[in-house]
TrEMBL record:
InterPro entries named in the record: HEPPP_synth_su1
Protein's name in the database: Heptaprenyl diphosphate synthase
Record Gene3D superfamilies: 1.20.120.1450
One GO biological process term: menaquinone biosynthetic process
Record Pfam families: HEPPP_synt_1 (PF07307)
Highest taxon above the source species: Bacteria
Length: 287
């Protein structure tokens, strides 16, 4: 199998000054991309494992970038307008590169599969967003749906995975998608730009009192009140416990697969999460 260098290859498409200056690139789907390369690298399609991981990551970045486009009506400042326009253009650009890469390699069938997955993701998002708009989503439902949305593109390759490894592939994809989702939520809970409709938002809305729910319903964030609620409900601890549970489930899955090839690569995917859970790195803990 090729060494893992997909994030470096992706920089060819993401490291443009105009994009970096006026918008924020979403988190790279590193765990999912690396997991995909591991499993495809053990099939007859192994010559294309890196290509598939790169192309799928670019589609994911395209969708995640478009998700950052606000839908608020009214006037915006020039910098806000420019950022919004760059989110649109950057997402379209990442998507076009995915088509180009796969078409150049003659992988037209995979273009169709990934395009179909994008349609499924968008339909699922619409259902989720409608429930969110009506404030009908629980924290756990939000997290489950976030994980399912992260998985859909990568599930396009399930038919390519060896039959005896398909179950392991699916289980690990679920768990690593959870790990990525939780890490993002740990960042979002302290970011006033993104904490609306984050896991922390839904947890507090679900378990908070009427006054706290009223604060969450306000169109403008009350940063001080939000920070107090995050501390009160120990959101950081809660998410860290979930991350710890995910890493433990991954370790249990790997214990049953000791004789299979490629496990050292999967352990390498797991390592950053284990490191983050060490006391010296878990700064969000409130002991």
């Amino acid at each position: 199998m090729n060494s893992y260098r997909v994030p470096q290859l992706a920089k060819k498409y993401t490291d443009y000054d105009m994009i970096r200056q006026h918008t924020e690139i979403p988190s790279f789907p590193d765990s999912r991309a690396r997991l995909l390369q591991v499993f495809v690298g053990r099939t007859d399609e192994k010559v294309h494992d890196e290509l598939y991981a790169l192309a799928t990551s670019l589609v994911q970045l395209a969708m995640d970038t478009h998700d950052r486009i606000d839908t608020i009506s009214g006037e915006r400042r020039e910098l806000e307008m420019r950022s919004r326009q760059l989110n649109v253009l950057a997402g379209d650009y990442f998507s076009s590169r995915f088509y180009q890469l796969l078409a150049h390699a003659g992988k037209i069938e995979m273009i169709g599969k990934l395009s179909s997955a994008v349609s499924k993701v968008n339909a699922r998002k619409m259902t989720l967003y409608e429930r969110m708009k009506k404030l009908l989503v629980s924290a756990e439902e939000y997290l489950r749906e976030t994980v399912q949305l992260k998985m859909q593109l990568f599930l396009s390759f399930t038919g390519m995975i060896r039959d005896n490894e398909a179950s392991l592939w699916n289980d690990l994809l679920v768990e690593f998608s959870y790990c990525e989702a939780i890490m993002e939520e740990l960042q979002r809970m302290n970011d006033e730009q993104y904490f609306y409709h984050s896991y922390a938002f839904w947890h507090i809305y679900e378990y908070g009192n009427d006054d706290e729910r009223n604060i969450l319903r306000q169109p403008e964030p009350d940063t001080r009140a939000w920070s107090g609620m995050v501390l009160k409900y120990r959101i950081g601890d809660f998410l860290l416990d979930k991350l710890r549970e995910c890493t433990h489930r991954i370790q249990l899955l790997l214990q049953d697969e000791e004789d299979q090839l490629g496990l050292h690569e999967i352990n390498a995917i797991l390592e950053p999460y284990l490191t983050y859970l060490q006391p010296s790195h878990a700064a969000v803990r409130e002991d």
